[in-house]
Design brief:
Blueprint (H helix, E strand, L loop, with lengths): L9 E12 L5 H4 L25 H10 L33 H5 L10 H7 L5 H11 L7 E4 L7 H6 L4 E4 L3 H12 L6 E4 L12 E7 L10 H8 E16 L2 H13 L24 H8 L3 E15 H9 L2 H4 L3 H17 L3 E14 L7
Parallel strand pairs: 2-3, 2-5, 3-4, 5-6
Antiparallel strand pairs: 1-7, 6-8, 7-8
Bound molecules: S-adenosylmethionine.
S-adenosylmethionine (SAM) binds next to loops.
Length: about 375
Amino acid sequence: MHDKAAAGEVTAVQHTDVIHALFGLIGNACSPSPGPIPCPVTRTWSTTSAGSTAPPAMQQHVRENQRPVAGSVRSKAPSPARRGPPTVVFMPYGIPGNESASARSRRHIFGDDADQYDAARPGYPHQLVQDILEFSALAADEPVLEVGAGTGKATVDFARLGVPVTCVEPDVRMAGVLRRRCAQLSDGGVTIEVADFETWHPRRRYGLLYCAQAWHWIDPAVRWTRARCALVPGGAIALFWNHWFLECGELADRLTAVHARHGVEVPPDTLLDPRPRPARRGPEARQWRDMTAAGFVEPDHRLYTSVHERSTSALIDLVNSYGGYRALPAGARERVLNEMAHIVAEHGGRARVKVITSLFLGRTPPAATG
Ligand SMILES: C[S@@+](CC[C@H](N)C(=O)[O-])C[C@H]1O[C@@H](n2cnc3c(N)ncnc32)[C@H](O)[C@@H]1O
């Protein structure tokens, strides 16, 4: 794997399947092309006020992720009479009763420790990058657009292949790490624009827009329209996410129990989330439905599996890089992570983490002819 920062601590043991799920070219049949595209430039939500100010995507994410799961710690409603530490009900984008955390924009939470994020997170499979480029069929030296580039975990893979990348990243601290990483690259050309994608003005149209682990942070009221505005007719969109799983069930159970002991819920979409992930595939997946409803055609969904071995500290660093853990009050987070580290060390000091990378592809309709 290409995770240089955590080298020595994280070993890619094995790269396995690419499950190529071409579920049928249903795009055109699914939804008519919506015609001329207005490019909205105003946000429909505020990032600064407290309370229910999360953008609609985030509110939807909260709702979806807070469905109780049978047999999981999340399924137990906190009892008011319960003794011990207070239950922290996990809210990915705000913690009730914690005004300072709620008031801060949840989407800048990764920038609070950008170097830690960069060192802890794995990158993306080489085959995925190759598949995206093949699907996009770009002309030589044609620039591509990356939304929510963060510290460049995906950027460097494209740039190293000589692809010029324009990155849109709103967090100045994440962009700082990205700039540092890209300065070391000899080929490709990376341009960094510190901006929200919702309000950013493209100066050209691109043959490919890709987004790694960040599309859910973009306002769903405008993200698809803005993506179409940024792409040429027939231009490709590629959205991907890593899903993490601990291979050892016994270790997973012991680490999950730590959360219950400290009254903390396992944050959704993190290593110990007991739900099946990615829960829905192909036409069943929300991204697929949203993409086709927004007029994108030739939808495709592919899964890539890899396995990494992590030391105790590399495993705890991964957990600590999730927004859901960063959003916890510092004391609760520290107690949970310390006890988890103890258990991993007792377990032999190493753990195998399976990563399933889920990729959605589509393209804008071709230009009308005649
Ligand atoms: C989980 S990180 C993913 C970073 C990187 N793409 C990766 O794969 O590691 C989510 C990123 O989305 C960025 N982000 C959040 N809101 C955004 C917005 N409105 N427009 C563009 N990027 C955004 C965050 O600053 C953060 O860098």
